[in-house]
Amino acid sequence: MHKVLLTDNIAQEALDVFAEHADIEATATGTLEAKELAKVLPDFHAIIIRSPTKLTADLIEVGASLKFIGRAGVGVDNIDVEAASKRAIIVMNSPGGNTVSTAEHTIAVMMALARRVPQADRSLRAGRWERGDLKGVELSGKTLGVVGLGRVGREVARRMLAFNMRVIASDPFIRREVVEAMGVEFRELDVLLENSDFITIHVPLGSDTRGLIGADEIARMRKGTFLVNCSRGGVVDEKALKEALDSGQVAGVGMDVFETEPPGKHPLFKHERSVFTPHLGAATREAQIRVAVDVSKNVANALLTGEIRDAVNTIA
Ligand code: MLT
After folding, report:
1. Best mutation site among 51, 53, 289 for ligand 1, i.e. most ligand atoms within 8 A of its Cβ?
2. What is the model's pLDDT at position 316?
3. Does ligand 1 have an atom closer than 6 angstroms to the CB of 50?
4. pLDDT for 49-78, tens place per residue?
5. Is 292 in the pocket of ligand 1 (CB under 6 A)?
6. Is 138 a catalytic residue?
7. How sure is the predictor about 126, in pLDDT bands with cuts at 50, 70 and 90?
8. Do 180 and 258 have their domain in common?
9. Which residues pair with 167 in a beta bridge?
10. In terms of domains, do 296 and 246 share one?
């Protein structure tokens, strides 16, 4: 019998996938503290997690029977992939299921930032009628810089072209022709930073992208740029960002992700002109079902047939 543990309250539909296979026994829980997880992990051949569970090297070591780690989502920065590879454990993610939700959330944050929607809501509820003080800016005619033109970046770019924005993008892994075929202008990152009114970041967190947008990059931006980050905390240096908001170099930020999550009372929160959400990019009913089902099918298939799909690591 293959035993699979699903943590982080993964959508029920994942259990339905495993219920179709008599040789697999799936157990679902909420998010477990590391100590609790360490107690149960040795029994399981596969584990499926969302972002709250951190699969550290120590936990991976404890999971003596583990063969597969499934990530119901895209980012695998909460998994020590190197430690998994050393133990010949395959890590699989679900790359496409939450793309549209994350793109839509990015746009929601960008529009809320431009038109001051959260501030207007707070002000009206407090009994005020501040139409003059809550003036926003239009997106139409402005330049949007998309940093990272992977799945989510592309969906954002396509939609914002329909808002009549000029869209420029930088991505070292995508060919200029592919970018231009979308009606998007290809630029080096520095040039993008210098020429955008709004900048939105869509890169994974890794050693090459940690601090990608720091003090030097922010200094290159136009004064009064709006910055949106619905990708990963840590890609933007929060200390540099706070200084830029204090000085007005960055007019406002729309942030869904933080270096530490949850961020507690973050110093950035004093900036009224900015918009913050608690890592909600993929938090739609549709996306959560899709990623849970996709990764569960891959894990079930891998356990039963050895066929691997959507692996993010290779093992010797
Ligand atoms: C992802 O990496 O898929 C999203 O950020 C959602 C999440 O972390 O749960």
Report:
1. 51
2. 72
3. yes
4. 999 999 999 999 999 999 999 999 999 999
5. no
6. no
7. very high
8. yes
9. 144
10. no
Domain with 138 in it: what CATH number?
A: 3.40.50.720
Question: Does residue 232 carry a catalytic annotation?
Answer: yes
Gyration radius from the chain CA atoms = 21
Best mutation site among 10, 48, 98 for ligand 1, i.e. most ligand atoms within 8 A of its Cβ? 98
| Residue 313 included in any domain | no
Distance 197 CA to ligand 1 centre (A): 27
The one-letter amino acid code at 38 reads A
78: Cβ contacts below 8 Å, ≥ 6 apart = 49, 51, 52, 53, 54, 55, 71
In a domain, 316, yes or no: no
* Non-local CB neighbours of 138 within 8 Å, separated by 6+ positions: 114
Report pTM: 0.94
Q: How many domains does the chain have?
A: 2
Give pLDDT tens digits for 271-281.
999 999 999 99
